[in-house]
Specification:
The chain is an alpha+beta fold. Helices cover 28% and strands 42% of the residues. The strands form two sheets. The chain has a five-stranded antiparallel sheet with strand order 1-8-3-5-6, with helices on one face. A three-stranded antiparallel sheet has the order 2-7-4, with helices on both faces. A hairpin with a 2-residue loop joins β5 and β6.
């Protein structure tokens, strides 16, 4: 008999802003392990409108490449009506986060996230200051009884 479960876990991380990239794969794997779910889905979502969740090969050169490309895509110096309206100069961070999205959903197979050998799950904080970020890890699936 299989039992369908939903398990949620929230982590809080300190970030540096300016597209700080943090590997959270271990956090997600731990949450899956604690859930007891063998087969299902994991959704990873950052709470807030100036951060993103994605996957990347988390190695120093590619992390720098990603930051460079984000700057080319939406520069910190781009004119922003949001920044002009609110005076917080972080319009670029909202745009980057909107283009990348707040979360991802990945399969769980035999109790493990289905990702590639060099693929890690990362939080990217695009804001223009340090932040405390909440990331929700929601798992749904079956475990053998």
């Amino acid at each position: 008999m299989e039992i369908v479960l939903v398990h949620g876990h929230t982590i809080t991380l300190s970030t540096k802003g300016f597209s700080d990239i943090i590997n959270i794969t271990d956090n997600v794997e731990s949450a899956i392990g604690a859930s007891g779910i063998a087969d299902g889905l994991v959704t990873v979502t950052v709470v807030g409108s100036t951060a993103s969740i994605t996957t990347i090969e988390y190695e120093p050169a590619l992390v720098l490449d990603m930051k460079e490309q984000l700057e080319k895509m939406v520069s910190q110096t781009v004119r922003s009506r949001h920044s002009e309206t609110w005076g917080d100069d972080n319009g670029f961070s909202h745009l980057r986060a909107s283009l990348m999205g707040p979360g991802i959903t990945l399969p769980i197979v035999d109790g493990n996230i289905l990702i590639g050998t060099w693929q890690q799950i990362v939080l990217i904080d695009h804001d223009n200051r340090q932040r405390s970020r909440k990331v929700r890890i929601q798992i749904i699936g079956e475990r053998d009884s």
